[in-house]
Design brief:
Elements (H helix, E strand, L loop, with lengths): L1 H139 L2
Amino acid sequence: MTVYIIISSIVALLIGGLLTWLSMRFLLKSRYDSVLREAEKEAEVIKKNKLLEVKEKFLHLKADLEKQVSARNAKIQSVEGKLKQRELTLNQRQEDLQRKNCEVDAVKENLAAQLELIDKKKLDLEKLHQREIEQLEALSGL
């Protein structure tokens, strides 16, 4: 009977060990699965947070770039406005110069006509003077 008790003790010990091993394996497997699920959830939360951070940073960079672009566009428009104003001023000056040149040409023509008239009158006056001298000489008998 001692052999029977020893064998039954060994069998009970083996069955107990096997049951313990199976229960530990089941418990460890369920613990492993729960830790894995928690890690996946945590990784998903971290991933979402990082995506939100990246999107937020992208939006900030985009807003900054849009501000820079609008500032450059405003500067370009300002320069274009100044250039248009200068162009208008230059065009007006050119028109004034052309008008003044026309006026100068008209004055030159007028002066030339007056000089021609003066020369004609001078010739007429010299002829008249010469006739009077001839008449005076004829009257005086020279």
